[in-house]
Amino acid sequence: WYIGECGTEQPVAVGSFITVTPDTTTTYFMRGEGECFPDGLECQTITVTVVDSIAPTISCIGDQVAQVDQNCEYILPDYRVLVVATDDCVEEPVLVQIPAPNSVVSENTEVKIIAWDKNNNSDTCSFRLLLSDPFLPVVACKDDTIYLTNETNLAYLEPQMIDAGSYDACGDIKLRLGNTTTFDCTQLGEHTVTLTAEDRVGN
């Protein structure tokens, strides 16, 4: 038995059969001797085709917690260095992160890591990136004048009436008044009211 043409190099084995474990598709040459092999048939070939159908295995990290910046954004790091991936046929499977490293996110995000081997077999793991928002909303107030209605002799104050552009970098806010919002004729004059803004995470 040879790898290469019959008799051109040292045989890899001698006998009626051999056991082989090639990493890639390999052709073996069998040279026969004696009357059992007619002229022209002394050298025969057998090709062993290697097919890798076994996917890599990958183990992800647990859920991650990160803090957004003042623009309510977070730049994804390269999480691939934190996962472990192995494969039977390649030493280091190719790792792909989705969303890719350096992507900008502004909400809780599922991160996937895919391990590929050279034969396009793959395995996927995922974890959640949970974003925390430590920044308080910005509250802006303005003075307003409200009038008693003719029908009820009452005046009603709504948060939007004294809001001068309150905002939060991470999204919508809820406005509420913390004290009296209904006035009658016994309460004429100036009053101090409190406007509170709350963002989506309760700041």
Give an overview of the whole structure.
With 203 residues, the protein is an all-beta fold. The chain is 2% helix and 32% strand. The strands form six sheets. It has a four-stranded mixed sheet, with no helix packed on it. Strands 1-2 form a two-stranded antiparallel ribbon. A hairpin with a 5-residue loop joins strand 9 and strand 10. The relative contact order is 0.14. The model has no long low-confidence stretch (mean pLDDT 87).
Q: What general form does the structure show?
A: rod-shaped
**Strand portion:** 25-35%
Unreliable stretches, pLDDT < 50, 5 or more residues?
none
Main beta-sheet annotation:
4 strands, mixed
The helix content, as a percent range, equals under 10%
Number of strands: 14
Query: What's the helix count?
Result: 1
The Rg value, from CA coordinates, equals 37 Å
Let me know the average pLDDT: 87
The largest sheet has its strands arranged as 4-10-9-7
How far is the first residue's CA from the last residue's CA? 77 Å
Can you describe this structure in just a few lines?
This protein is mainly β and about 200 residues long. The chain is built from one helix and 14 strands. It has a four-stranded mixed beta sheet with strand order 4-10-9-7, with no helix packed on it.
Q: What attributes does this structure have?
A:
203 residues, two-stranded antiparallel sheet, rod-shaped, mainly beta, 14 strands
Topology:
Layout: E1 26-31, E2 43-48, E3 57-59, E4 64-67, E5 74-75, E6 84-86, E7 94-98, E8 104-105, E9 109-116, E10 122-132, E11 154-156, H1 159-162, E12 174-177, E13 182-184, E14 195-198
Parallel strand pairs: 4-10
Antiparallel strand pairs: 1-2, 3-6, 5-8, 7-9, 9-10, 11-13, 12-14
